[in-house]
């Protein structure tokens, strides 16, 4: 087995013990190429005959494609067959995941193919430390694994990361923040060597490197007077710059662009639309097989809060749906799963169904910007499972509509990779869902527990802590889908009115009589009309709208009775008391793991759970007090509200 884990760094889901089932066995590896060599290095000594595990590249890609594999066990021999080297890599890690089960009894032929062709993590890492956002924007796991103080880091950590990602099936990564500041912009040109170095380290793990680029690069870096996508000089600049990128990195993945969004430049500045913007980059990349990921996260962040007609939820659809069919084949529209911004609970973005003639990628957020910032234990598997399985159109769910799954990474140079050690499970789950969105989130959690913490830990306690932790987090934070009651700027902790009268959008409209945003066609912003049937009708209807999204779509009186039978105000009180109490129970449950995990990890989790208990109580008291003072309605159970 590979023994090059970094000293002092938690091995996450690839500790030497994870290879126990393979370690003592005779293994044969057949095939050539870099990725096959990676498998050989993982396996250690190989044999030519009498193998108990045979890993073979057949060279016949056929139905297995480049990444699929078959697994079976017959006559005491476990066999992985792949058409191409990448499939062998994924097949090998599947055997690691199965452990002893891969070597027990007979196994009929199972075929494993990735559901998503690209399974990509985006890093919001800055090259130079940003005075407001730090080295990693929305990063809660220490510094960047790529850059420190403006310079590239030692890449040993990146190599270990590549290995972890390959073991979950991730095959692409964007290494820098979509908010591309001056130093990072130069990764495209005179600092390209740094990108090539990362690509070199990740290549043996089947991971292609992508780069976030600034739409105004022709001006910033090329000295051109304009970045107008229809200008011939601009087109030529992108073509030549991209040619040089491929000269240095022949398997470069492509560009990611955040344009006309939160202050980033874009095609609107030149009177052009987003298809014009994306296509100039797509054309530059096409000769080399590259792709451009164009983000749909475009909205007006300089609103007048008095203007009731502007609705941030509407923006992406309004901008992009009319452009369906206008994007090049190698342009991928990257759409956040919800219409606002990675909130704990949002409806699915209607853009995902609105653009059948466009390649759509769905974007999740593994970094827990709005879900507890890796100070709170919040296993996001159940949320992603709901998102991916949501039947947005009559014949397809979100996973079926998306061509790719992308997420913002939660990794930094922290010893446990993810700040909160239990947040590793989210990173692991992302890769597994991108490979197979139909997986059960609790089985994925089991896999992670087995691999990362070993088979002997108190699994029941870990499940009791994590299984419902997303819903627990939801219960003590913003109620009923309303979202965004966080402290402005850093987004941690409660602040009910923090964003209410700001240019970024208004999210709850609470007054003495009621709360929620009217997004109906009948009396509100009309956002419900962006959905296909039946959702356009379901969300429009006060009676049919699901409780958990009620305040996202409707403004209702505090006495409105939910499907659950509770009133809105009593629901707010009950869930906040219950949620905060539940965190105390989570903290208590962790005691059962004492002595079963290493002391350092134990101490880190305890410290995080203590903070979660404190923070949940703060949320409970602020939310309950706010709504009690607004509504004047007492808690029917007479609990303490301030
Ligand atoms: C990278 C949210 C975050 C920003 C982030 C942005 C985005 O608004 O708060 O930090 O910017 O999303 O997805 O581009």
TrEMBL record:
<dbReference type="InterPro" id="IPR017853">
    <property type="entry name" value="GH"/>
</dbReference>
<keyword id="KW-0378">Hydrolase</keyword>
<dbReference type="Pfam" id="PF07488">
    <property type="entry name" value="Glyco_hydro_67M"/>
</dbReference>
<dbReference type="InterPro" id="IPR037054">
    <property type="entry name" value="A-glucoronidase_C_sf"/>
</dbReference>
<dbReference type="Pfam" id="PF07477">
    <property type="entry name" value="Glyco_hydro_67C"/>
</dbReference>
<dbReference type="InterPro" id="IPR011099">
    <property type="entry name" value="Glyco_hydro_67_C"/>
</dbReference>
<dbReference type="InterPro" id="IPR011100">
    <property type="entry name" value="Glyco_hydro_67_cat"/>
</dbReference>
<feature type="domain" description="Glycosyl hydrolase family 67 catalytic">
    <location>
        <begin position="112"/>
        <end position="395"/>
    </location>
</feature>
<feature type="domain" description="Glycosyl hydrolase family 67 C-terminal">
    <location>
        <begin position="418"/>
        <end position="639"/>
    </location>
</feature>
<dbReference type="InterPro" id="IPR029018">
    <property type="entry name" value="Hex-like_dom2"/>
</dbReference>
<protein>
    <submittedName>
        <fullName>Alpha-glucuronidase</fullName>
    </submittedName>
</protein>
């Amino acid at each position: 087995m590979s023994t090059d884990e970094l000293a002092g760094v938690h091995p996450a889901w690839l500790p030497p013990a994870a290879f126990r089932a393979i370690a003592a066995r005779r293994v044969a590896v057949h095939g050539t190429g870099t990725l096959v060599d990676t498998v050989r290095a993982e396996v250690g000594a190989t044999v030519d005959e009498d193998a108990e595990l045979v890993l073979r590249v057949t060279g016949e890609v056929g139905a297995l494609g480049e990444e699929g594999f078959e697994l079976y066990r017959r006559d005491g021999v476990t066999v992985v067959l792949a058409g191409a080297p990448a499939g062998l890599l994924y097949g090998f890690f599947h055997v690691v995941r199965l452990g002893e089960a891969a070597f027990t009894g007979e196994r009929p032929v199972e075929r494993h193919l990735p559901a998503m062709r690209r399974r990509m993590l985006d890093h919001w890492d800055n090259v130079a430390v940003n005075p407001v956002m730090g080295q990693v924007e929305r990063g809660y796991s220490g510094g960047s694994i790529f850059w420190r103080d403006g310079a590239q880091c030692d890449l040993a950590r990146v190599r270990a990361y590549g290995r972890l990602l390959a073991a979950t099936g991730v095959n692409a990564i964007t290494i820098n923040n979509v908010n591309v500041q001056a130093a990072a912009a130069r990764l495209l040109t005179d600092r390209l060597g740094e990108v090539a170095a990362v690509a070199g380290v990740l290549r043996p793990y089947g991971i292609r490197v992508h780069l976030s680029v600034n739409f105004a690069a022709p001006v910033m870096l090329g000295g051109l007077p304009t970045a107008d996508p229809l200008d011939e000089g601009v087109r030529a600049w992108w073509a030549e710059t991209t040619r040089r990128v491929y000269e240095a990195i022949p398997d470069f993945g492509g560009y990611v662009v955040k344009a006309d969004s939160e202050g980033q430049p874009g095609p609107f500045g030149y009177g052009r639309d987003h298809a014009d913007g994306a296509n100039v980059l797509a054309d530059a990349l096409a000769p080399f097989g590259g792709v451009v990921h164009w983000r749909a996260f475009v909205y007006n962040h300089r609103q007048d809060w008095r203007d009731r007609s502007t609705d941030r939820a509407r923006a992406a659809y309004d901008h992009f749906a009319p452009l369906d069919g206008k994007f090049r084949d190698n342009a991928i529209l990257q759409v956040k799963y919800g219409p606002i911004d990675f909130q704990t609970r949002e409806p699915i973005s209607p853009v995902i169904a609105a653009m059948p003639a466009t390649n759509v990628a769905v974007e999740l957020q593994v970094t827990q910007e709005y879900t507890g910032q890796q100070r709170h234990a919040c296993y996001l598997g159940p949320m992603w499972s709901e998102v991916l399985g949501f039947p947005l159109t009559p014949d397809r769910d979100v996973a079926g509509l998306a061509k790719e799954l992308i997420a913002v990474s939660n990794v930094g140079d922290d010893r446990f990779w993810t700040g909160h050690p239990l947040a590793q499970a989210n990173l692991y789950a992302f890769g597994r869902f991108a490979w197979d969105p139909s997986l059960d989130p609790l089985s994925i959690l089991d896999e992670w527990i087995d691999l990362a913490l070993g088979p002997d830990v108190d699994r029941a306690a870990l499940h009791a802590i994590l299984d419902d932790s997303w819903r627990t987090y939801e219960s003590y934070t913003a109620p009923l889908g309303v979202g965004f009651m966080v402290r402005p700027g850093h987004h941690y902790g409660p602040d009910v009115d923090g964003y209410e009268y700001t240019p970024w959008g208004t999210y709850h409209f609470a007054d003495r009589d009621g709360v929620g945003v009217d997004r109906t066609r009948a009396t509100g912003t009309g956002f419900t009309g962006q959905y296909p049937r039946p959702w356009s009708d379901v969300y429009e209807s006060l009676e049919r709208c699901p409780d958990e999204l009620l305040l996202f779509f409707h403004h209702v009186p505090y006495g409105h009775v939910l499907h659950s039978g509770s009133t809105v105000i009593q629901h707010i009180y009950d869930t906040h008391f219950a949620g905060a109490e539940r965190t105390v129970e989570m903290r208590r449950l962790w005691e059962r793991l004492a002595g079963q995990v290493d002391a350092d990890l134990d101490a880190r989790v305890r410290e995080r759970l203590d903070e979660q208990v404190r923070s949940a109580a703060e949320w409970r008291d602020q939310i309950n007090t706010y709504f009690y003072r607004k509504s004047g309605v007492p808690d029917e159970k007479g609990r303490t509200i301030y």
